[in-house]
Amino acid sequence: MSPDFTNKFIERLSRVRSQLTAESHLIIVSKTRSIDEIMAYYELGQRDFGENKVQELLEKSQLLQARCPEIRWHMIGHLQSNKIKQLFLVPNLWAIHSVDSLELLKKLIQSESILKGPVKIFLQLKTSHEEEKYGFQERAQLDLAIGEFKKGQSLELYGLMTMGEIRTENFEEQARRCFQDLNKLKKDLSKDFNLNLMSSMGMSQDYELALKENSNWIRLGTMMFE
């Protein structure tokens, strides 16, 4: 790894970390990035990495299992039910941020015996209401999803995830609305079900807005590498 390459990563990681609070955490989205790039950030102390394709995640996790034993993998992309068993083979799988339907959740729970350890689940909300995005939109469906979690399961309900609206002339206003809508649901669900839910929201283009709305997990890819 060239010094310039490493220095660039040090600068970017330091800048983002300076914006985090004790309650907020960084996931570096490493999709399409090389093993060397992931290892460079790992050596700088970064532990949380996200991928949006199961096959790429599995391959990288297996290659890095010995060299990066403390790495924590986050599945952040849309998950097809026929990829669940493959996903559950990922070493150091820590969280799935994209559980976007009651049907998918039930299929995950049906296959959880494959898991070697606990995995945290974020229920994905479609706060932007954009057609091409996935996620829960009705409170009743969220209530049913929460009811699927039982004590002793390997899959643990951990939080809610959303993405800000992209196709809009009022980008900041709409992103803020999406994050506030998630926060309201997080507060209501936490109260009604006696939970302490986390939030996963904010990407390279809107993470600063998400942090102002007290996001617990931000997912940054492009800005960390290019």
What are the secondary-structure elements, in order, as H or E? Answer: HEHEHEHEHEHEHEHEH
What is the CATH-assigned architecture? Alpha-Beta Barrel
Distance between the termini: 16 Å
Summed up, the domain count is: 1
**Count of separate DSSP helical elements:** 9
Could you tell me the mean pLDDT?
A: 95
Report the major sheet. Answer: 8 strands, parallel
Question: What CATH first level would be assigned?
Answer: Alpha Beta
Which spans of ≥5 residues are poorly predicted at pLDDT below 50? none
| Share of residues in strands | 15-25%
In CATH terms, what is the fold-level topology?
Answer: TIM Barrel
Shape: globular
Total beta-strand segments = 8
What strand order characterises the main sheet? 7-6-5-4-3-2-1-8
User: Radius of gyration from the CA trace?
Assistant: 17 Å
Structural class by secondary-structure content: alpha/beta
What fraction, in percent, of the residue positions are helical? 25-40%
Write the CATH homologous superfamily.
Alanine racemase
